[in-house]
Amino acid sequence: MIDTAYHSPRVTQTCPLGPSVKGVRMPQIDYFFATLSPYVYIAGTRFEEIAARYGAEITYKPMDVVALFPRSGGQAPKDRHPSRVEYRAQELRRQSKKAGLPFNLRPAFWPTNAAPSSYAIINAQKAGGGDMGLLVHAITRACWSEEKDIAEEAVIRAALEEAGFDPELAESNMMGAADEYASNLEEAVRRGVFGSPFYITDTDERFWGQDRLGDLALHLSGQL
């Protein structure tokens, strides 16, 4: 069955089953994304729901997508041809409506510094105990729907708390998180990532964009 339905942003806890269950290797997915990306917001928690359905384990790899663009043949939105900018605006309007999500095409705090929110995600993944999918969605929702600056500590702490994590993760291990954030960018370049969101399976199948989540589901089910 093709997984094309758009779900509401209702969050279900991701349930990774680990590298093996009764000797059967379970899929692993590396998730490269930027907290500034509108398409990460529009994805909601559909990725996590698909991963849970097929017992896939997710590794979250927030990255600096602005730095990625010139290293992967792309351009930042502000540098694109007007026809591409206009199409992007139409596509965001359509896709957010399709997903049933409130969306502000010109948020008050975009672009902003994505590093602090990315550090919090890195720290949360190491700490465990909360819902990573909800954390990513809460941060991106703050930017694209709630007119909040995701570079601000209070906004990040609120997202951590909403997702069941210790709000203090917004300020802990800053040097280590910064190193991993930079490392994620280098890994993204090395592995052929060129946009956000970008999903890579442990068999090196690559899926770019939230509109390819249905294809990812088909792949995990063995149909594609």
Element-by-element helix/strand order? EEEHHEHHHHHHEEH
**What is the rounded distance between the termini?**
11 Å
Oligomer: single chain
Average pLDDT reading: 91
Q: What count of domains describes the coordinates?
A: 1
What is the helix tally?
Answer: 9
Strand content: 5-15%
Structural class: alpha+beta
Strand order of the largest sheet: 4-3-5-6
Assign an overall shape.
globular
Percent of residues in helical segments?
Answer: 40-55%
Radius of gyration over alpha carbons? 17 Å
The low-pLDDT segments are 1-21
Largest sheet: 4 strands, mixed
User: In the CATH classification, which architecture applies?
Assistant: 3-Layer(aba) Sandwich
Q: State the fourth-level CATH superfamily.
A: Glutaredoxin
Highest-level CATH class:
Alpha Beta
* Number of strand segments: 6
CATH topology: Glutaredoxin
EC number: 5.99.1.4
Keywords: Isomerase
Catalytic activity: 2-hydroxychromene-2-carboxylate = (3E)-4-(2-hydroxyphenyl)-2-oxobut-3-enoate
GO molecular function, one term: glutathione peroxidase activity
Walk me through this protein's architecture.
By secondary structure, this protein is an alpha+beta fold. The chain has a single domain, classed as Glutaredoxin (3-Layer(aba) Sandwich), CATH 3.40.30.10. The chain has nine helices and six strands; from the N terminus they run E-E-E-H-H-E-H-H-H-H-H-H-E-E-H. The strands form two sheets. The chain has a four-stranded mixed β-sheet with strand order 4-3-5-6. A two-stranded antiparallel ribbon has the order 1-2. A hairpin with a 4-residue loop joins strand 5 and strand 6. Helix 2 packs parallel to helix 9 and helix 5 runs antiparallel to helix 6. The longest helix has 18 residues. It starts with 19 loop residues before the first strand and ends with a helix. The N terminus is likely disordered. Belongs to the GST superfamily. NadH family. It comes from Limimaricola pyoseonensis. This is 2-hydroxychromene-2-carboxylate isomerase.
